[in-house]
Amino acid sequence: MAQITTLTVFRYNDTRGKLWAFWMMQFAHRHLKNVNGCSFYKLMGSGKEGFDPRPDWSTYALLQVWESERDAAKFFETSALVTRYRKRSAEMGTFFLKGLKAHGAWSGGNPFQVHPDPDPSNQKVLVITRATIKKRFLRRFWNYVPTSQRPLRNAEGLLYTKGIGEWPVIQMATVSLWESEAHLKRFAYESEEHRKAIMHTRTLGWYKEELFSRFQPYRFEGSLSGNTFSF
Question: What is the reported pTM?
Answer without folding.
Answer: 0.92
